[in-house]
Design brief:
Elements: H1 5-16, H2 18-44, E1 59-69, E2 72-81
Antiparallel strand pairs: 1-2
Helix pairs in contact: 1-2
């Protein structure tokens, strides 16, 4: 069922409120974090703690990265590798996401 223009305007206003904006920020942060973890898993060749013959590296914790978006600052955890380096292709170094 389609929403009327009045309903859409009310929804937009509720999203602009602090609660709505916080919800958007949390969803964006969760989505970006999941994509980063999936890319790291693909690069390593194995899930967290999984023993696999295709494994090319091992995780060694995370480092914090603050990403500024229109929804506000997002705190992301970038996986570190024991050997080599990893930076998600989703993000650009020292850049803002719009």
């Amino acid at each position: 069922m389609a929403l009327s223009q009045h309903d859409l305007l009310r929804l937009l206003e509720s999203l602009r409120s602090t609660d709505g904006l916080e919800l958007v920020r949390e969803v964006a942060q969760r989505l970006l974090q999941e994509l980063i973890e999936a890319e790291a898993t693909a690069r390593i060749g194995a899930e967290w703690g999984e023993q696999a013959e295709t494994r090319t590296a091992y995780r060694n914790g995370h480092r914090e990265k603050t990403v500024t978006t229109q929804a506000g600052d997002l705190e992301l955890a970038i996986p570190k590798l024991r050997a080599g380096s990893f930076f998600p292709s989703l993000l650009e170094r020292r850049r803002r996401i719009d």
